[in-house]
Amino acid sequence: MIKLDQISLQRGSKFLLEKASVVFHPGQKIALIGANGSGKSSLFQLFLGKLTADEGSVAIPVQWRIAHMAQEVATSNRRALDFIIDGDHQLRGIEAAIDKAEREENHTLMASLHEKLDTIDGYNARVRAEQLMLGLGFKLDDRDKPANSFSGGWRIRLNLAQALMSPSDLLLLDEPTNHLDLDAELWLEQWLQRYQGSLLLISHDRDFIDSVCEGIVHIEHQTLNTYRGNYSAFERQRAEKLAQQQVNYEKQQRRKDEINDFVRRFRAKATKAKQAQSRLKELGRMEDIAPAHIDSPFNFSFPEPEKFSDPLLNLSHASLGYNQDPIVSHINLSIHPGSRIGLLGANGAGKSTLIKSLAKEIDLLSGEFTEGENLQLGYFSQHQLEALDLDASPMLHLQRLDAQAREQDIRNFLGGFNFHGDMAVGSIRHFSGGEKARLALAIVVWQKPNLLLLDEPTNHLDLEMCHALTMALQVFEGAVIIVSHDRHLLRNTVDQFLLIAGGKAQAYDGDLDDYSRWLISQRKQDAPASTPGSDSTGKTGKKEQRQQAAEIRKQLNPISNAIKKIEHKMEKTDKLLKDMEAELGDNDLYKANNNEKLQQLLRQQGHLKLEKNHDEERWFELTEKLESLQDELASQG
Predict the structure, then answer these.
(1) Do the strands 223-228 and 313-322 form a parallel or antiparallel pair, or are they unpaired?
(2) Which domain of life is it from (predicted)?
(3) What share of the chain is helix, strand, coil (3-state, %, to 5)?
(4) What pLDDT is attached to residue 262?
(5) CB-side exposure of 579: number of CA atoms within 13 Å?
(6) Would you give the DSSP letter of residue 304?
(7) Cα–Cα distance between 202 and 38 in angstroms, integer?
(8) How far apart are CA 163 and CA 150, in angstroms?
(9) 313-522, what's its fold?
């Protein structure tokens, strides 16, 4: 196991950790969370031996192999496939030894080394590396390209593939989803679920954490606080803790009222039953965890747009692409005030191309583009971080947009994005990626848009800022179009999806779980008809199908039984709550001499409601899993 005992870690004059202790057990998958600058990445450097603790001790088993995802952009000119295989240092060592033994014609040693190569599955290394490339969105044609010929984001993906290629007992991943699209993120999620070693993960993507991790370590007030369960469980536990602080009560109530109002507005306009059900379930859960974010340093909202046109934008018979080469054709799209659209589709299908076309960054290849008279566009993409003036302050960036704005109004506005004091008026040259992303978003918000185009807005943001952005988008009065790998953001801010696939853009009636299943089916269709070692008659494939079907049937009964047990339990809980509500309706209970009994009943009611919420979530998970297995079984005939 890994043990940190009374660790103190200081950077400059600032203590990141002070006498903090924690234990990580073998095989655990833990998310390390905390505000930007709290010390998450520094803790990784401590594990890698690149930093030394100022006090305390770090104990990691000496025999453990540690793999980590490099944050530096790869500059190697090695072939992409070779660069990934380089992650397996033991394999490369054996290969070098084999080359030497061949030159020396040491046949005895060569036989021994080939046996070692077989033991570590070295003969399949190329296939494993190719699978990693495909899973992370590369094409097989990319295998022979030099690593340094890819753009920055794709080179980070190569770093991730190299880390996954490395056999490890401990895997350290720092924001692995930052440069992934939703398809690649879902693939990585499944890969990590199968990973057998210990995983420490830094991520701002709550759905990703929920799916992969079983524990949370929260860096707060220079200490390490452990929580059992995933990020959703952490929010509930922290919400319960903070809800007990009376000083936050009124702020909590205001936040709950905002969420309730949004739920009511959404319920009134929801048109797609399945998406509505998924969305309302998620929003209801957000109300319960709202207190967990009461002490967030971020608190902003989009100003109400001054004017609207209807439609705001319209594409008619449009073809989009580059150099007269269409990527998406025959698009007819009208964007109206209140439209909330999430773009789905595989990497390279044309999601960002559509966003750039709507933002008029690239011209249509053909078709008509009609812009509303009162359109006020707010466009956010990663390249806008690069367009920031590094020598200017956050305040100066906004003053350039509105020379008449009062300095105090700008300071108050920037405070909502956690730019206070010197940070608001000093140069941004030394800002982190997350701070630059916050400033770029602040610039968009300041301009009072009535149409937001957001291309991966949560990259580089921490969990609290992602939550604040989600809350702000929920009460935004204008139209929103989003490309994002952040499923939590999509579930809580859009009410319709547009699927970009096969050169077309079409309305998608399912929810994100349906989309995940659709992706899996697409991968199966795109898989090669035969693989090395398979029986040409198809007998092996049929045998495997029968075995898979039998395995699926084995899983169905336990899940069905578990669903029945939860339904029975929820019925009992509903009866208890109904009886309790009747008891709470007794006016005598509110007399002074019954205060203790009243408080006890209210506590019991709170616990039962929380328990019911947990059971409902579990019921939804199991029901979705059962349906997925039944669909998979049916697809196998």
Answers:
(1) unpaired
(2) Bacteria
(3) 50, 20, 30
(4) 63
(5) 8
(6) P
(7) 12
(8) 18
(9) Rossmann fold (3.40.50)
3-state secondary structure of 141: helix
According to CATH, the superfamily of the domain at 2-98+126-234 is: P-loop containing nucleotide triphosphate hydrolases (3.40.50.300)
As to burial, measured by CB atoms within 10 angstroms (0-12 exposed, 13-18 middle, 19+ buried), residue 213 is: buried
CA distance 25 to 344: 38
Other beta carbons less than 10 A from residue 548's beta carbon = 13
What residue type is assigned to position 234 of the chain? Answer: F
Residue 595: strand, helix, or coil:
helix
Closest CA to 209 of 462, 441, 492: 462
* Tokens at 585, concatenated: 């309706």
Beta strand residue intervals within 114-206, DSSP E: 170-174, 198-202
Enumerate residues 6+ apart whose C-beta is below 8 A from 318.
Answer: 330, 331, 332, 333, 357, 364, 366, 367, 368, 369
3-state secondary structure at position 19:
strand
3-state SS, residue 191: helix
Domain residue extents for the chain: 2-98+126-234, 245-293, 313-522, 551-635
Q: Do domains 2-98+126-234 and 313-522 have the same CATH topology?
A: yes
Instruction: Compute the residue count for the chain.
Output: 637
Segment 256-309, tens digit of pLDDT? 666 666 666 666 665 554 555 555 565 555 555 555 555 566 677 778 887 888
At a CB cut-off of 8 Å and minimum separation 6, what does 433 contact?
A: 385, 460
Q: How far is C-alpha 116 from the geometric centre of its chain's CA atoms? A: 39
Which residue in the block uniquely carries the two structure tokens 């405070």?
415
Q: 394, 345, 300, 349: which is closest to 515 by C-alpha? A: 345
Opening angle at CA 485, ends 39 and 559, nearest 5: 100
Tokens standing for 620? Answer: 């939804």
For residue 43, give both structure tokens: 């803790």
Q: Which residues pair with 146 in a beta bridge?
A: 79
Residue 146 token pair: 């030099």
Task: Say if residues 292 and 239 touch (Cβ distance below 8 Å).
Answer: yes
| Residue 24 CB contacts under 8 Å (≥ 6 apart), including other chains | 1, 2, 3, 30, 198, 200
Helices (DSSP H) in 447-538: which residue ranges? Answer: 463-474, 487-493, 512-526
Residue 586 contacts by C-beta under 8 Å, 6 or more apart in sequence?
Answer: none
What contacts 168, CB < 8 A, 6 or more positions away? 65, 66, 67, 197
Q: Give CA 574 to chain center in angstroms.
A: 34
Distances (CA, A) of 309 to 306, 314, 375, 608: 11, 11, 6, 48
Among candidates 424, 422, 392, 390, which has minimal Cα distance to 407? 424
- The CA-based diameter of the chain, rounded to the nearest angstrom, is 97
Q: Please report where in the chains the tokens 């039953």 appear, as a residue.
A: 273
3-class SS of residue 518: helix
Give the residue carrying structure tokens 């001054």. 306
Average pLDDT (556-582) is 81
Kindly report, residue by residue over 177-225, the tens digit of the pLDDT: 888 888 888 889 989 988 989 999 998 888 899 889 989 999 888 888 8
CA distances from 431 to 203, 391, 435, 438 (A): 19, 11, 6, 10
Claim: this prediction has a pTM higher than 0.90: no
Quote the distance between the C-alpha of residue 562 and its chain's center. 29
